[in-house]
Amino acid sequence: MTGPRFTIRTIVLLIAMAICIAAVVAVLVALDARKDTARAKAAGVIADGRTGAAQDASGVRDRSDLRDAGISADVKQGTDDVRKATDRAAANRAARRGVCRIDASAYADCGVLLADPG
Fold first, then answer.
1. What pTM value is reported for the model?
2. Residues 6+ apart with CB under 8 A from 106
């Protein structure tokens, strides 16, 4: 099997193998591109999650600061009411009213105390 026939078969076989190798390489490149796209998409999802978490944390912090400011104002008002009280019973009522401003469930009579301007 020598001669031009063997050489043509060999060349055709080599060309077919080159085409198969090129097809395999093309498939591998396409798969790698899909992986890169998936990684980029995952990174975007993670970044969006971090942004959302930061916004949530900021909202929680803002609400906490607002609540703390409200409690501080209630404590100051309660302290002022106690200082302005004319006698011990009035000071006691003012102190209980101050506690009720902060926690309405602290005493059974908080509704009555908060309704009474003092």
1. 0.50
2. 99, 100
